[in-house]
Amino acid sequence: MLRLAHPWALLILLAGVGVLLIHLRARRASLAGMPPALRYSDVRLADQGKGTWRARLRVLPDVLRLIAWTVLVLALARPQMGEAREVLRGRGLDIVLALDISSSMGALDFQPDNRLAVAKQVIGDFITRREFDRIGLVVFARDAFHRAPLTLDYDVLENLLDGVQLVADITDAAGLPLLLDGTAIGDGLLSAGAMLRASDAPSKVVILLTDGENNAGPDPLLVAEAAAALGIRVYTVGMGRTGEIPVPDQDGTIVYIQSELNEETLQRIAALTGGAYFRAEDSAGLAATYAEIDRLERAPVERRVYVPWQDIGWPLVWLALGLLLGERVLRLTLFQAVP
Fold this sequence. Notes:
Structural class: alpha/beta
Radius of gyration: 39 Å
Order of helices and strands: EHHHHEEEHEEHHEHEEEHEHEEH
Number of helices: 11
CATH superfamily of the largest domain: von Willebrand factor, type A domain
Low-confidence stretches: none
Strand order of the largest sheet: 6-5-4-7-8-11
CATH class of the largest domain: Alpha Beta
Mean pLDDT: 81
Number of domains: 2
Helix content: 40-55%
CATH architecture of the largest domain: 3-Layer(aba) Sandwich
C-alpha cells in the first residue's frame, strides 16, 4: 500500500509547471516580435549544415535540472509504504457441533437428500458465517467420537464434516459393519462438554442435533447439569418428523421404520443450560434454526485495522542530488558556455 504523507507538496510541482509554461509562451512571443538582426540573401547553405552532438544535446543539463527538482518535490511529498494489519480486541466463542449419525439420519424425508446430508449442508453454511470462533465437531450414535478439535481452520473443519457418514456405513478393517447403531444423546453431549471443559472463551456453546430419543449411554439430563456447572450453553435441535419414515437399507431397498423424537428431553437439556430448543421438520426449517443460533451467539469482537507506514523518499533525495551534481559537471565540462 502506497500513500503520500504530504500530498499538498505536489502543488509546488503544478505551480512550477505553470510558471514554466508561462515563461515559454512569453519567450516565444518575444522572439516572434523581434526583427532579424542580420539579413542574408540565401540561408540554404546554413540549413544544410549538420550540428555536432554537443549542439544537439545542449539542453541536457536543463533537462537534468528539471528532473532533479521534480524528484525533490516528490520526496517532499513523503511517499510511504505500508502493509495493513488487522488487530482483534476480544475473543470469539468456542462452539462444538454435536451431530447424530444414527441409521435414522438416513431417512429420505428431507428432500432432495437424506437427513444427514441436509444437516451437513446446513452446518457447513453455519461454519462459513463464523469469523473468530473456534469450532469443534462431535458425532454420535451408540457411542460418541471427536471428529475435529476446536479450531479456527474452517477449511479443514468443513473437509472433516464432508467426510461424516452414517454409522451403518462405518466398517472395520475387514469391511464388516461395526454395529454401533443407536442414539446416545448423553454421550454426544458428554463428549462435546469434554472438548469445552478447559476452554477459557467468554462463551462456550454446544449445538446438538438429533432425530431420535436417547436409548444408550448416560442420562442426558445429568450430563446437561454437569455442562451447566461448567458454564456451557446447549442449543438442541430436533430434526425430522415422527412416525413411519422411509429409510434405504443395505441393498438400497426402501423400508419404513418408526421414528421417535423425545422433545421433552431436548427441551429440558436446553433449559438446564440456558440454551434453547428448536424443531426442524424440513430443510428450510433446519436452515432457519441454524441462522437463528448464528444470530444469537455472537462474541463482542472488535476489529481494528492499522498500517505501519515507512518513509521511502530518501532514495528520491539521493537521486535528485545525483542529477544536480551531473548537471553541474556537464555545464562545467562538455557544455561549458564561454561569455
